[in-house]
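The freezer alarm interrupted the setup, so I double-checked each line after restarting. Inputs confirmed:
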Amino acid sequence: MKSMTREAKAKINLTLDVTGKRPNGYHTVKMVMQTVALHDDVTVALNEDGGFYLKNNLPYLPCDDRNLAMRAAKLFYEVTGAPNAGTRIEITKRIPVAAGLAGGSTDAAAVLCALDTLHDRRLGVERLCEIGVKLGADVPYCIRGGTMLAQGIGEELTALPPMPRCFVVLCKPPFSVSTAGVYAEMNGGNVSPRPDTAGMLRALADADYAGICHRLYNVMEPVTGGHHPEIADIRSTLLSCGADGAVMSGSGPTTYGLFCARETAETAYETLKKAFPDTHLTEICD
Ligand code: ATP
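Predicted 3D structure, all chains:
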């Protein structure tokens, strides 16, 4: 049985701005996205019986078509017409779920890339992204990874200079947030204040780590944070433990801090882990 395992990495938002709402109801965004090393392991195997199977290590995460990885596999065959060998997917989840870290999107991206390789289709990144966006706006970013400006509904990607390497402490408090619910409170993108996206792009171009930390901002943080005071508590703990900057990722509730020194990051990790078990120490990567 042909199979391969891919690391499906999580993303964080350095900035997140909601710029408007289209007549079809989709919001437009402008955000700087960054890959981190925290990842799920996604094993994809072709199997001869033609069936689609998925298993994962979390009892509450669905294994049927509600799982984006399963939908990715079926879509791959639908649009490429590859001979349907059937697919077995096994996911070891480490990325917190419904957390603002694109966990489902990155698993879906990993399945598309794995099937492309296993079937030797060589579709190329552009085509894989066209397929991926049908599954979700964050999937094209997860296919590309790295440091990117995402616009449109999140699928218009521009590569940015790589972010200076640093440590990241991610903390997910024990509740989940509905992304649709947060968008519903965004007033169609008529929000203030907004992130200094242009300043963030300059800071990245200059590899100005302090400038990056200074400009971390997410317009969704006041909304999600308004319902959940834990987000402000986590951010203050990160900063008081020595984070160089801290902000919520995506629609939340995961809140992260950036650290240039490993020891400081470890202290923050140990401190937050006591109150919030779903805390992770990771780093920026491609
Ligand atoms: P984003 O940052 O793209 O908004 P998220 O990190 O907030 O995503 P996910 O972890 O992708 O959220 O989970 C959102 C929903 O998707 C959950 O309710 C979950 O049940 C569902 N889901 C489907 N497939 C997966 C998967 N493979 N991994 C995680 N969640 C999945």
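Quick read of the result. Residues 61, 66-69, 91, 97-105, 107, 138, 179, 250-251 surround adenosine-5'-triphosphate (CB under 6 Å).
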